[in-house]
Amino acid sequence: MNKIQSYSDTKETKIKLGQDLIDFEVSKNNDWEKTKNLIKKNIKEIIWKAWIEPLNFVKYEKKILYLASNSQLISNRAETQYYETIYFEASKYFDGLVKINIYTKDKVERIKNYKIEKDDDIKVDKFIHNDLSFVDSVSMKINTKLTFDNFVVGASNQMPFAASKRVCDTNSIIYNPLYIYGKVGMGKTHLLNSIAIDLKQKNHNMKIVLMSAERFMYQFIKAIRQKDTIKFKDQFRSIDVLMIDDIQFIGGKGSTQEEFFYTFNNLIDEGKQIIISSNKSPVDLIDLDEKLKSRLGGGLVVDFLPTDYKLRLDILRRKVNLLGLNIPFDVLQFLAKKVVSNIRELEGCLNRIWANHELTGKDISIENAENLLIDILSVNEKDISINFIQEKVSLFFNLKPSEMNSSRRSINIARPRQIAMYYCKALTSFSYPEIGKAFGGKDHTTVMHAVKKIDTLSLVDLKLKKQLSDLKKSILSIQ
Question: How far apart are CA 75 and CA 55, in angstroms?
């Protein structure tokens, strides 16, 4: 009787554990859907549909979130360009999240079917170690396609390229820190990836951390909350190379800046290499502490100059050859002449033209490209500033331009101000903090809220939708 009872209890326990596991997976799948909805509010819908919406929840295990898509292209793009966005929002639902792995469907099946062995009733996943290393947990995943070999060099980016190569070619640290700056989409992140790949190939044991400034802030705040700042300091100071992307986003965060300054000093003093990227030179980062500015500018500072026609054409030709695309040369010449803002946008236009051809069957011609890219071409032909947008919105709603910077919250002023912020984000390359400063020193979260608010209202408010359309035409001067 006891044996029967014992067998029954064991069976019921297994069933309960199985049900608990199912409930956990369902709960976490729901958390992923909530995460996707948060991301949707912060980025353009066309980007969300292309790169985020196709990502499916696989599992959440050992504080690692596994996601998958049916396309290698989608998985790669999501991991290399939107990892930080996904991580930031996912950490709100996945407690203790340390890393996100994004795969294609075939890899997911291999993960699911991977054999798990038992050792003293403790399951050990052979696919990933229980003790995830600090470097692996905080670093962005290196994009192995962004190497020095496929970086197209021209007069505008020769100095950043040469300096990045020199950092890898010498055993002595001659440029420390190496500070690379330039506008969005010029190739800064490409160079950081290239440096990491090259250094790792030459020394497999080298501890290299490549992370965004926002991720550094997140890790520091997390350490404070967990009362584990000593471990945080020791971990960061144990690495060999620290690369921080978009340092401008550390501006305005007093305690984070201070901790970064001490980490920075310690690594420099110990002869460790530091490489920084930003959209501005150190002296132009107005929210940065003076002593940190001085330290950042104490090594080698190099910048990306505006691209010329030849470089843009060379980049397009390289891209077409790599992907095997059949695009007429006159269309490439047209793009190189018209899309001058940044390389990322140039490549995006090329992708849009090819996707339109594949999906609709329309011929690839200059006329079709011009119609397809009218919004981007209009922006490139105008020098759109925050002040220009504020003036246009003020005129449209019959307000004084100064009211864009006021703190008044009446709906007849607050709503136009939100619309102005919305278009500043949509039609310029300025960041949330930069836009906030231009609106009377508003916090970046205020700008984010404004963008979300207008984006949401435009889906249900037909009057607002018409106003937005008219305003965009006015700003872009589209007749």
Answer: 8
Half-sphere exposure of 211 (CA within 13 A, CB side): 26
CA dist list (Å): 159 to 145, 181, 297, 371, 443: 21, 11, 16, 36, 35
**Residue 151 DSSP one-character state:** P
Close Cβ partners of 60 (under 8 Å, ≥ 6 residues apart): 28, 31, 66, 94
- Residue 247: in which H helix or E strand, if any? none
Q: For the chain, first and last CA: distance in Å?
A: 88
For helices 229-236 and 254-269, what crossing angle results, to 10°? 40
pLDDT tens sequence across 264-281: 888 888 888 999 999 888
Task: Return the ∠ at Cα 97 (arms to 96 and 102), rounded to 5°.
Answer: 165
Q: List the alpha helices (DSSP H) in 210-339.
A: 213-225, 229-236, 254-269, 290-296, 309-323, 329-338
Token code pair at residue 371:
């119609």
Of 435, 189, 107, 70, the C-alpha closest to 53 is 70
Query: What is the pTM for the complete model shown?
Result: 0.56
Label the pairing between strands 64-69 and 56-61.
antiparallel
384-413 pLDDT, tens digit per residue, is: 788 889 999 999 998 888 888 887 778 888
Paired strand residues for 117: 124
Is 186 in contact with 157 (CB distance < 8 Å)?
Answer: yes
CA nearest to 100, candidates 114, 108, 90:
90
Number of other CB atoms surrounding residue 234 within 10 Å = 10
DSSP H or E segment with residue 446: helix 444-457
Of 249, 280, 304, 186, give the one whose Cα is nearest residue 436.
Answer: 249
